[in-house]
Amino acid sequence: MMAYGLKSRCMRANDWHDPRWRAAAHSWIRESLDRLGAPVTGEIEEVRVRPWSVTHKAPTTAGVRWFKANTMDCAYEAGLVAALGEWAPHSVLTPLAVDEKRGWLLTADSGPTLRETLPDDREARLLAWREMLRAYAVLQRTLAPKAHDMTALGVPDMRPETLPEVLRALLAETAVDSEVDVTTYGKWCAELAADGVPASLQHDDLHDANVFPGNRFFDWGDAAVAHPFGCLLVALQSAQYFFTTTPEELAGLRDAYLEVWSDLAPMESLRRSAVLACHVGRVAKAAAWRRALRDAALPVAEDFRTAAAYYLAEIPKPTPVS
């Protein structure tokens, strides 16, 4: 009983609604902004809260500043964001301050996202998406030589060589409605690993609400070092969902992304790799959900709780690029 009582009085590493956690976070925000010469001028507000992350808004003498905290399994985002700010400052949202150990980061306000600024004209929206995907592919090629540095920062290693073991571990702890053919999955991974495309940073939640105009990318809490083409899974699913793209339009978005890699292989080979990357990338997506919910800071809704099982069941099904 004594041990339980002591444990119950300890502040968890992440508990977004614990007054002690909130006080510690707000103290760090204020101290960090004081050091930057932009002191807080009003109340710090909670803006977006999820079981795996929380975002607060702080008014300062230099304008709005944003604070984000992740659960411990996703805390690598803070260190990754700091590194990206050094490696590719014109393509990412550069942080003002980070606490890598606690997974906290501060950024300046960058205005509306790309989604919020897109025109109603369909062709203009498709053009903006094509440019976004090309810009992300360019960023991935820039970051490919940093793959080892990123895994050293704690970014999950989801390269094709690792994924069969990741799949086996997930299946051991996740009830899946349909049978998963592990042998076929391993063959897909081996083919993908041999295609000559280098591993890089795979956002795993790439869409127009995670990028600012000018194609500056942010929100890396799901990111992994992986086959780069896996980013097309969520990107093209999002395009389908948010503005009901036709198969021909999806193919055009896919090819706009793949053109950046066209010096490495013929386009048909790249398209084959894109299909494989989306199939096998569903395991990486399932693993991202497991990380996000492993030590959730809030109660987890049913659709979140079953997300990993959903992606595992989807492995053999058609992808947006097939």
TrEMBL record:
Residue ranges of domain Aminoglycoside phosphotransferase in the record: 81-265
Coiled coil: none
Signal sequence segment: none
Transmembrane segments: none
Keywords in alphabetical order: Transferase
Gene Ontology MF terms: transferase activity
Protease is among the record's keywords: no
The protein's name: Phosphotransferase family enzyme
Originating organism: Paractinoplanes brasiliensis
